[in-house]
Specification:
The protein is α/β, with parallel strands linked by helices. The protein has helices at about 1-30, 45-50, 60-70, 85-95, 115-130, 145-160, 175-195, 225, 300-305, 315-325, 345-350, 360-370, 380-395, and strands at about 55-60, 75-80, 105-110, 130-140, 165-170, 175, 235-240, 245-250, 250-255, 285-295, 330-335, 355. It has an eight-stranded mixed β-sheet with strand order 1-4-3-2-5-10-9-11, with helices on both faces. It has a two-stranded antiparallel ribbon with strand order 6-12. A two-stranded antiparallel sheet has the order 7-8. α5 (about 115-130) links the parallel β3 (about 105-110) and β4. α6 (about 145-160) packs across α9. It is globular and about 55 Å long.
Length: about 400
């Protein structure tokens, strides 16, 4: 009898300890970690001073620069990557990065690291692949993403302004190269016809002022099989060049956010100080996971940034505060340009997308390969259309979080 009581007591104590342990683990996972220090901000940094001190390059993709100089680059793909993200960079090179057209060039952009071992590793990686640009003007950290983006835009302005398009894309993003190629071809054709004969009117206009896009008259010139899926004239706007006084077209597009409330939690990853931005809602902005722009707007973005206080939210700053608010640029939402990923990883679903966010290196490889191996017409079935539509609706309502296997 006494032994049974002791056994029950010991069993109860053990179960109690186990329950407490489970609760503590759940709290650790679900409850935000308390940090008595408020997050650091960069809004006091002067963008003009920073931009004037750029390009202390430790590593430079010389071959890419040479191709840019020879006007051999149509699309420059810049991947802002963390110094430690070797596996992610390898996955990009082996997945969609291995299927780029010859006129497209890919580089990875990183900042300074204090870790000598990581620096040695990334230097060896750069020597092997020749596709890494490292700027020592800023430390590589999440809080410096705005500085990193300003730096890579400035690098592009200095060394590759003859490219037609610049794609900024994170290293955990799937890219449908074939679909993006079609878009760039269609947009290039549209830009040739839309404003080629326009002249400056007598009224004055600011540099990079948005205008109403005229009705398209060039669609008959497009290859039917290539551009039927796009309406590129809807994505393009224009400004009047202050030097040449001619209309200049541009595209600045991706996944467009509207009516997003500013985060006022000082311990949030997306905190925005009300002293810097007092409005309740953020300006329209493109998701920083990836966005595309024509190269001619880069100099406008850089010049305007010199007069707009820096914040840590890179996408809100570059496309929202500088592009939308500062320059009155039109931001284009591109259908199929996803800030999240589909709920189900079907090749037929990814075939309709430009991008998808949050893939692990292994998932990036497998999805790219599955898409590459799709037979012609494999997705042209009524059931596939229904499945893709259902997947889109569910993914919009219940966004799939990025994979932790990065």
């Amino acid at each position: 009898m006494v032994m049974r009581r002791w056994c029950r007591l010991i069993r109860g104590i053990a179960l109690g300890i186990l329950a407490v342990a489970v609760v503590m683990i759940l709290l650790k996972e679900l409850w935000p970690t308390y940090d008595p220090r408020p997050p650091t901000t960069i809004h006091l940094r002067n963008a003009s001073t920073f931009l004037n001190s750029l390009h202390h390059m430790s590593l430079d993709p010389v071959k890419v620069r040479e191709k840019c100089k020879r006007n051999e680059v149509d699309v420059l793909l810049i991947v802002p990557s963390s110094v430690a993200n070797l596996k992610a960079r390898q996955a990009v090179r082996r997945s969609w990065g291995a299927h780029l057209p010859s006129s497209w060039q890919l580089i990875f952009y990183i900042g300074e690291t204090a870790d000598s071992l990581l620096q040695d590793q990334v230097r060896a990686e750069a020597e092997k692949h020749g596709d890494i640009a490292q700027d020592l003007s800023f430390y590589d950290s999440y809080s410096n993403l705005t500085l990193k983006t300003l730096s890579l835009l400035s690098w592009t302005q200095s060394f590759c302004m003859n490219a037609s398009f610049i794609l900024k894309i994170d290293d955990d993003i799937f890219l449908n190269v074939q679909r993006l190629y079609s878009l760039t071809v269609c947009v290039n054709e549209a830009r040739k016809y839309m404003y080629s004969e326009k002249k400056k009117d007598n009224s004055s206009s600011s540099d990079a002022q948005e205008k109403v896009t005229p009705a398209p008259t060039f669609l008959k010139t497009f290859p039917k099989n290539l551009c039927d899926a796009f309406t590129p004239y809807q994505y393009i706007s224009y400004f009047i060049n202050s030097q040449t006084h001619e209309y200049e077209s541009y595209l600045f597009g991706g996944y467009l956010y509207n009516r997003v409330k500013a985060d006022r939690d000082p311990y949030s990853k997306w905190y925005l100080d009300p002293k810097i931005y007092p409005n309740e809602f953020l300006p329209p902005f493109l998701s920083g996971t990836s966005y595309i722009m024509t190269s001619n707007i880069i100099r406008h973005l850089i010049e305007a940034a010199k007069f707009i206080p820096l914040i840590e939210l890179e996408d809100v700053y570059i496309s929202g505060l500088v592009g939308n608010n500062g320059l009155k640029m039109r931001l284009s939402h591109l259908d199929g340009w996803n800030a999240f990923r589909p709920r189900w990883d079907s090749p037929c679903t990814y075939r309709k997308l430009f991008t998808s966010h949050g893939l692990s290196p292994s998932e990036m490889l497998s999805i790219t390969q599955a898409l590459h191996n799709l037979n012609h017409g494999a997705c042209d079935h009524f059931l596939v259309y229904i499945t893709n539509a259902f997947d889109s609706i569910i993914s919009y309502i219940f966004p799939r979080l990025p994979s932790k296997d990065n």
